[in-house]
Specification:
3-stranded mixed sheet; globular; 183 residues; 7-stranded mixed sheet
Length: 183
């Protein structure tokens, strides 16, 4: 399996290590020409969604990545990656200029950024993910999925009754960081 990790900002090194530990051939996506390498999975790491969205536009990556996602490329996204994929960003009290300059809007969910608090509010817990029990979950300034906008979206995990990981068509997205759990 060949995995392209968006590597313009955020926890891309941890995301690359996660996939390498699973035997994947991993490469970093930093510029448009990196997309010519071909991939089976696009990995969107945690980080700052606003910065990532801005850089996607500036580096000419936004349109070709969106086309690949809409064309069925498998996507694995955590935290900021989930925000970039969400159809709706629901940040009460925030103006549009605090939202990512660009986001894909291809995953039928609504999200609220930093819903579990600031950096000091980060935490670890264990839960059930896709039928597996005692899965370690690390939440770092995590977004919350505030609404599921299509009955086709499958909820894979929850925390306090709120969805924390979802699957829809070719996309699996997490509010937490599976790449920061045990290898």
């Amino acid at each position: 399996m060949r995995v392209g990790v968006l590597s313009v900002q955020g926890a891309f090194a941890e995301m690359a290590a996660y996939w390498r530990a699973r035997g994947a051939d991993v490469f970093e996506i930093r510029q448009r020409s990196d997309l010519d390498r071909g991939m089976d999975v696009l990995a969107l790491p945690g980080g700052e969604s606003t910065v990532q969205g801005k850089l996607l536009g500036e580096l000419g990556l936004f349109d070709p990545l969106k086309a690949k996602i809409e064309g069925g490329l498998t996507v694995f996204a955590t935290c900021a990656g989930l925000i970039l994929l969400a159809e709706k960003i629901d940040d009460p009290g925030r103006s549009d200029d605090t939202r990512p300059e660009r986001w894909f809007g291809v995953l039928p969910v609504a999200v609220r950024r930093n819903a579990y608090g600031r950096q000091l509010g980060s935490f670890r817990t264990v839960g059930t993910f896709d039928g597996k029990s005692n899965v370690p979950m690390t939440f770092i300034r995590a977004p919350a999925i505030t609404a599921i906008l299509s009955p086709e979206v499958e909820v894979l995990s929850e925390f306090n009754g709120q969805p924390t990981a979802v699957r829809w068509r070719n996309i699996t997205a997490f509010t937490w960081h599976p790449e920061l759990g045990p290898a």
